[in-house]
Amino acid sequence: MAETVDDKVSYFQAVTGISDPDLCTEILAAHNWDLQVAVSSITANPSSPSASASTSSREQGPSAPLADAEFVAPPPPMPPAPQQQQQPGIAWKLVTLPFYVVSGGVGLVAGTFRLGAWVAGGVLSRSLSLLGLAGQAGGDRLLELPPSAAEAAEFVAEFEREFGAGRGPRFVAEGFSDALQRAQREFKLLFVYLHSPDHPDTPAFCGGCLCAEPVAAFIDENFVAWGGSIRRTEGFKMSNSLNASRFPFCAVVMASTNQRIMLLQQVEGPKSPEEMIIILQRVVEECATSLVAARIEAEERLNNQRLREEQDAAYRAALEADQAREQERLEELERREREAAEAERKRKEEEEALARAAEEAAEKEAALARRRQEKAMALGAEPDKGPGVTRVCLALFSSSFFLTTFFQLLL
């Protein structure tokens, strides 16, 4: 078995809407664990839980009021009616007992082999990476993709591998939340396709409708396309969140408030390309006004933000210019104060120098006067003319005059 028993039971519950795992297990065992046959038998039976859920969903119709579906906490599936949850009798259990034994044993053996292969692969990959022998493709990737983006990329690769590269809508290789934000940024609706690989109508719907050139071109032009397999975690969550009760399943959603999504349209069951285009065209026309209004509002908000930024930039430039002028004024004032202080210092130094010179000159003059007085007092008074007094006269000549007279006498 390619899948474990729990995977098949979970998938069967997601497709049919039956919440009782024991009942799902018995139905799958009765059909030899063939998902396609079991799902076909349930969807073809009008009294089954899946048919009742599909009928109630189709009663809403494309023109039903818009509903909100929360992505963070998907709503639980509706419980079936009491008459649909009746346990089968003892005869049914006796008939299906061999299927339980065989399928359980095979599932246990397959699970053991898958676990061993996974452990061995992990050990081998780790060993090669430590030895530097790992592939360059894995080594070149600096950041690993988040699980939701990895699942989306795997779905895109599987879809192109099965139905041809370049065919069908251009599904984004991002998680649902990222795709929803991308659609919001591009002012488009989000086209959601939930892929059920085991459903008998899936190949014909994908190859004949989604891969049709008019449908793919219309979706690429007016929507952001996101796809997910219900075998994966995010695809399974979205199938529960959108109450997908019949496959193939498509939906058109848009972002709402408080991390919620608004379900605009459900497309369940096989559709022709013409029917799909008509449905999607109607949704686009109904939401065109709101998308245009959102675009205009975003442009106005962007223009207002740009205007505020320009005003802030002009204010900052004017403020910087004022600050520069004030800084220049302060620097000029400080320069003038420094020059005035330097001139005052020089003037005081000159005044002090003149005062010291005058003081020194006065001191010298006073000292000379004292020496004259002291000498005069030491010599005493000059005697008067009389006997016993001799007057001596000294004539002082210059050396040049003396030499001239000396040479004249020699000649």
From TrEMBL:
Highest rank taxon of the organism: Eukaryota
Single Gene Ontology MF annotation: ubiquitin binding
GO biological process: ERAD pathway
Low complexity biased stretches: 46-57
Ranges of biased composition (kind: Pro residues): 73-82
Chain segments carrying region Disordered: 46-87, 328-369
Ranges of Basic and acidic residues composition bias in the record: 328-368
Ranges for domain UAS: 158-281
GO annotations of cellular component type: endoplasmic reticulum
PANTHER family from the UniProt entry: FAS-ASSOCIATED FACTOR 2, FAS-ASSOCIATED PROTEIN
Designated name of the protein: UAS domain-containing protein
Lineage of the species this protein comes from: Eukaryota, Viridiplantae, Streptophyta, Embryophyta, Tracheophyta
